[in-house]
Design goal:
The protein is α+β, with helices and mostly antiparallel strands. The protein is built from 19 helices and 22 strands. The strands form five sheets. A six-stranded mixed sheet has the order 14-18-19-17-16-15. Strands 6-8-9-11-10 form a five-stranded mixed sheet, covered by helices on one side.
Length: 688
């Protein structure tokens, strides 16, 4: 029996992992903002990034993850140095920060897989420490800083002083806004004023004190900086300030306001503040409408929804039989109406349960944006990344599995697709290349398209390279679709081995990883114009549209996305070449295999001698094969549940689904079936 202390530790780890994921998502959003504002870095984004890493460091320390905490500590120190202006915020600096954040993500994955306290990458820690030691060679301040009231200057922190000097250097307008509030509601009024100032400019600091008009009032002064075009008087009015003092005029303002000008001199100060923030408006509830729920609880809810759906179908047939012989028409009508309502409700519950697992595709794009920025710098290429995902959503588990394939495709586009500035100039293209990602929902599938306007793919070069690598036999004709060659294991057109290319680990990994999540990938290209990869995945793997087949009295479910077609054949028409059975299909020889024999079921025979004549055609790219089954039971949405590892089974059986009436159907992975039966070389028509 597990000790209470260990149960608490396990619970704390789960809560930590959920919190850490949120913190890294916030960090990624802040990084994206900083990448886009390098010319004029957004201090709020830098602060958000700093706070996220600081919170992650503290949370890691609470659960005893010293390795993770040490990386977070170094990254936090580096970001703090940047906040204080001791390290210049450049693209190279952000690249180092990105490496640090990615290192944190990798450590978290290892923690999630069960490691107690993973070792850290010392080279990452060393690179972060090195940056902190680099001197800041930014130019000296171009103008003297305005004079601040002595009591304000004494209260300023190093960070606030740095931001004051930085805004002076950038020729921003600077102002002190005075706000007064009743003692009982000062927190609400102050927050409203700070939010208003922060939305129109940069809130550098908040300082209590000053002469109040009433002993029951509290006074605060807000030091703020404003870009050209901002009306300080309007900001002061909206923030509820009783007065303001301009320390440095906003550039190009024609008539700066008089110092210490009252905002509403004809009315008492206190009522103005009370009208701006009424005490009864104090929030009594949480600001967020989100609720953090573990994936285990969601999985439990989905399982119950699936069981409810099975119970509905189990009820349908006996109810129909009972009603058919019922003599009471009114009772029969009411029973039919009640079942129809039950049917609608169960369907709605299933859809709602599935929707809980869905997350916006937009969450995945921040990592890709950072990858484009970092890799483009390494390759010395100019690239603009566009992401158009709208409100498209995908299952959280699938989103995690899709992240690496999409990142691989982005790297491929940057390394092989987008040309260098010199090449693009010679080709009369814009010096800045474009990579565009779109995501759309089509029925039960989500379609991603990643396009670039680069050099495109030369089919003849692909065929030549494939033959030189032995991926196409000398006697074989050229493949029907040469572009599909890029997905073969070991295929690469890179001449040299670099950090990104030439290691023989290529796009075959993308296709393999997508196959595991019932996805597929295709490619189109025009030489000199660009390339488009289309990735299609199911919206969710929990409820899968499947083709149900029966083989040796066992039911199997095959995801419809991996099945091309079905047909019947004549065993007498089977031809055998080199020990392999073939039948004609769409003008090409199709290798066929007896599914029962492959899976080790009793009664399996060769396709030539089989009494079964139904073939399902599984497809993956150019690879295609037929599998002889006993019968096809039709299409159905099924809830796939994983099987315990302790159950011995063929590798191609990945799970099981309960069918109406209590029957069990085993889930078959068509990609793994094809891997098992297909030979390495590819020929025209997808034969072996």
């Amino acid at each position: 029996m597990t000790a209470p202390g260990r149960r608490d530790e396990a619970r704390l780890r789960r809560e930590f992992l959920a919190e850490a994921e949120e913190l890294l998502e916030r960090a990624a959003e802040a990084q994206t903002t900083l990448y886009r504002s390098l010319e004029d870095p957004d201090p709020a984004a830098l602060n958000d990034l700093f706070r996220s890493i600081h919170s992650l460091k503290g949370a890691a320390g609470m659960v005893g993850l010293k390795g993770l905490s040490s990386v977070a500590h170094e990254l936090e120190s580096l970001l703090d140095a940047a906040r204080l202006g001791r390290v210049e915020l450049t693209a190279a600096f952000l690249g180092t920060v990105t490496s640090g954040v990615d290192s944190l993500s990798r450590i978290l994955k290892r923690v999630n897989s069960g490691e107690s306290d993973p070792d850290t990458a010392q080279e990452v820690v060393a690179s972060l420490q090195k940056w902190r030691q680099e001197p800041n060679d930014s130019p000296a301040q171009s103008a003297p800083a305005p004079v601040l009231p002595a009591e304000v200057e004494r209260m300023m922190t190093d960070y606030e002083r740095h931001r004051f000097e930085e805004n002076t250097k950038r020729d921003r307008g600077l102002a002190l806004l005075a706000l007064e509030f009743p003692l009982e509601t000062f927190d609400l009024g102050l927050r409203k004023g700070m939010d208003e100032v922060g939305s129109r400019g940069e809130l550098i600091g908040t300082f209590p004190g000053g002469v109040a008009s009433d002993p029951n009032q509290m006074t605060f002064r807000l030091l703020a900086a404003f870009k050209p075009g901002v009306d300080i008087a309007a900001v002061a009015r909206e923030a509820g300030a009783v007065s303001y003092e301009i320390l440095r005029p906003v550039p190009r303002v024609q008539e700066p306001p008089e110092p210490r000008k009252p905002v509403a001199p004809s009315e008492p100060k206190t009522p103005v503040v009370q009208q701006a923030v009424a005490p009864e408006e104090a929030p009594a509830r949480s600001v967020s409408n989100s609720l953090r729920v573990s994936t285990e609880r969601i999985a439990s809810l989905l399982a119950l929804a699936g069981d409810l759906g099975l119970a509905r179908w189990a009820l349908r047939r006996p109810l129909e039989r009972a009603l058919a012989s019922a003599t009471d028409r009114q009772a029969r009508f009411e029973a039919q109406r009640a079942f129809a309502e039950l049917d609608r409700t169960v369907t709605a519950i299933g859809r709602a349960a599935l929707a809980i697992r869905l997350v916006p595709v937009e969450q995945m794009t921040s990592r890709l944006i950072r990858a484009v920025e970092s890799i483009a710098r390494t390759l010395e290429k100019k690239v603009q990344f566009e992401a158009v995902t709208g409100d498209t959503e995908v299952d959280k588990t699938l989103a995690d599995e899709l992240a690496d394939p999409l990142l691989h495709l982005v790297r491929n586009a940057l390394d092989h697709g987008i040309e260098s500035p010199a090449e693009r100039r010679k080709a009369k293209k814009a010096l800045e290349g474009t990579i565009r990602l779109t995501a759309e929902t089509h029925g039960r599938e989500v379609v991603f398209r990643l396009s670039d306007d680069g050099r495109g793919i030369d089919p003849e070069r692909l065929i030549e390279k494939a033959r030189s690598l032995g991926l196409i036999r000398p006697s074989d004709p050229d493949p029907v679709d040469p572009l599909d060659l890029i997905f073969l294991p070991g295929f690469s057109t890179a001449a040299d081995v670099t950090e990104l290319s030439g290691r023989g680990v290529g796009l075959d990994v993308v296709r393999s990883n997508l196959t595991k999540i019932k996805g597929r990938v295709q490619v189109w290209s025009r030489k000199g114009e660009g390339t488009t990869f289309e990735v299609v995945i199911p919206m969710t793997l929990v409820l899968v549209e499947s083709l149900l087949v029966r083989c040796a009295d066992v039911f199997f479910a095959l995801a419809s996305s991996g099945v091309r077609r079905t047909f019947t054949y004549d065993p007498a028409a089977v031809e055998v070449m080199d020990g392999q059975s073939f039948v004609g299909d769409e003008g090409f020889p199709l290798p066929v295999f007896d599914l029962a024999t492959l899976l080790g079921l009793p009664g399996g025979v060769s396709p030539r001698k089989s009494s079964d004549t139904t073939v399902i055609v599984a497809e993956q790219g150019l690879r295609r094969a037929g599998f002889v089954v006993g019968a096809i039971e039709g299409m159905q949405d099924v809830v796939i549940k994983p099987l315990p590892d302790t159950i011995p089974r063929a590798r191609e059986i990945t799970g099981a689904a309960e069918l109406p009436g209590g029957q069990l159907a085993f889930s078959l992975d068509t990609g793994l079936l094809l891997e098992r039966v297909m030979a390495q070389p590819v020929t025209a028509g997808g034969g072996a």
